[in-house]
Structures are given as C-alpha cells and as structure tokens.
C-alpha cells in the first residue's frame, strides 16, 4: 500500500527524467526549470522522512526506495553536469568521489543487512547531503543567474566531496569492523 511518504519518494524518481530532459534541451529557461524540479525533488526527501516518522508510515517499500531515489537523482544530475555543465576538468573528480561513495555505502548497507546490522545515517552525512544538494542546485542554475553562482557551486561540490570522503570512511570503518567480527566468528567455529 502506498502512503504519503512512499508517494513522495516515487515522485522523486519520476522527477529524474524531467530534470534530465530540462538539462538536455539547452534552452534559456532550461536551467531554471531543471533547478526548480531538482529542488522540489530534493525537498521531498525531507518531507517523505518527516511523514514516515510523524505519521508512522515507515514501510519496507519506503526503506527500500528512499535511498535508491536519492542516489538516482544525484547520480543522474551529476552525470548531466559532467556532460553538459560546469563539472569539467578537475571538477569531474568531485563528482566521481560522490558517486563512488554512494556505491560503497549501498554495498555496505546490503552486506550489513545480511548480518542484520543497520548502518544509520550520521549527522555529518546529513550535512554532506545538504551541501551536496545545494551545490548541485547552484551548478544547475549557474551562469543563467550570475557567473558567481557557478563558482559557488564548484566550491560547494568540493566541500561535499570532502564530507563524502569523511563519511564514506566512517561507514567503511563500521562495515569492516562487522566484517572482521564475522571473520573471527567463522574461524572460531
């Protein structure tokens, strides 16, 4: 059964091709439409969590779809920003760091789920997401608003990449600890 939280998560997934199309069209209004759609999708991430907790709408479907929707949205837009936007040259590495961490954390969550171990989102990871979403929004609208907006977006994407490295390392360390416990339990048997 779909509840409000799940519908918001699904709306984020539906917004992905719309954001990409708006970026692809390369019209004078494209940056504004893409940043509006992206911002609306990013805001649903906060609201779906709020509704799920506030109205006890936490579901298996929501726990499955929410992180996927986030990663798909960020990955699609970062790829488009590399393809058509300001993430060129050395700035591509910031996008690669962010994407690599997302894959790493997804793999860790899947592995740890088999061990029935949760990997809760840290406060620093929430800050990373906030900075990352702001950076992407700045980069989407970029020069259409003012040339300084692109520069601010590039600074923010590198800050997000730095936070990504820190939080990725924290998650990896937690995962490796559980892997070591699993290995020592297996060898003791």
UniProtKB/TrEMBL annotation:
Keywords: Lipid biosynthesis, Lipid metabolism, Membrane, Phospholipid biosynthesis, Phospholipid metabolism, Transferase, Transmembrane, Transmembrane helix
Organism per entry: Enhydrobacter aerosaccus
One of the protein's GO biological processes: glycerophospholipid biosynthetic process
PROSITE patterns the record matches: CDP_ALCOHOL_P_TRANSF (PS00379)
Compartment(s) of residence: Membrane
GO cellular component: membrane
Pathway: Lipid metabolism; Phospholipid metabolism; phosphatidylglycerol biosynthesis; phosphatidylglycerol from CDP-diacylglycerol: step 1/2
EC class (word): transferase
Top-rank taxon: Bacteria
InterPro entries referenced in this protein's UniProt entry, alphabetically: CDP-alcohol_PTase-I, CDP-OH_P_trans, CDP-OH_PTrfase_TM_dom, CDP_ALCOHOL_P_TRANSF_CS, Phosphatidylglycerol_P_synth
Catalyzed reactions: a CDP-1,2-diacyl-sn-glycerol + sn-glycerol 3-phosphate = a 1,2-diacyl-sn-glycero-3-phospho-(1'-sn-glycero-3'-phosphate) + CMP + H(+)
Protein name: CDP-diacylglycerol--glycerol-3-phosphate 3-phosphatidyltransferase
Membrane disposition: Multi-pass membrane protein
EC number: 2.7.8.5
Family: Belongs to the CDP-alcohol phosphatidyltransferase class-I family.
Regions that span the bilayer: 7-25, 31-52, 129-149
GO MF terms, alphabetically ordered: CDP-diacylglycerol-glycerol-3-phosphate 3-phosphatidyltransferase activity
């Amino acid at each position: 059964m779909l509840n409000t939280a799940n519908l918001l998560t699904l709306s984020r997934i539906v917004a992905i091709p719309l954001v990409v199309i708006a970026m692809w069209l390369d019209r004078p209004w494209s940056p504004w439409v893409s940043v509006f759609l992206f911002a609306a999708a990013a805001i649903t991430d906060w609201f779906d969590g709020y509704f799920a907790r506030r109205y006890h709408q936490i579901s298996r479907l929501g726990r499955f779809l929410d992180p996927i929707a986030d990663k798909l949205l960020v990955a699609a837009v970062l790829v488009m920003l590399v393809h058509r936007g300001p993430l060129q040259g050395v700035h591509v590495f910031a996008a690669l760091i962010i994407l690599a961490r997302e894959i790493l954390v997804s793999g860790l969550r899947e592995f740890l789920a088999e061990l029935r171990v949760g990997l809760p989102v840290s406060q620093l990871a929430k800050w990373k997401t906030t900075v990352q979403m702001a950076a992407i929004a700045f980069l989407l609208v970029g020069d259409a608003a003012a040339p300084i907006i692109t520069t601010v977006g590039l600074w923010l994407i590198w800050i997000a990449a730095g936070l990504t490295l820190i939080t990725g390392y924290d998650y990896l360390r937690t995962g490796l600890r559980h892997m070591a416990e699993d290995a020592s339990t297996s060898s003791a048997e």
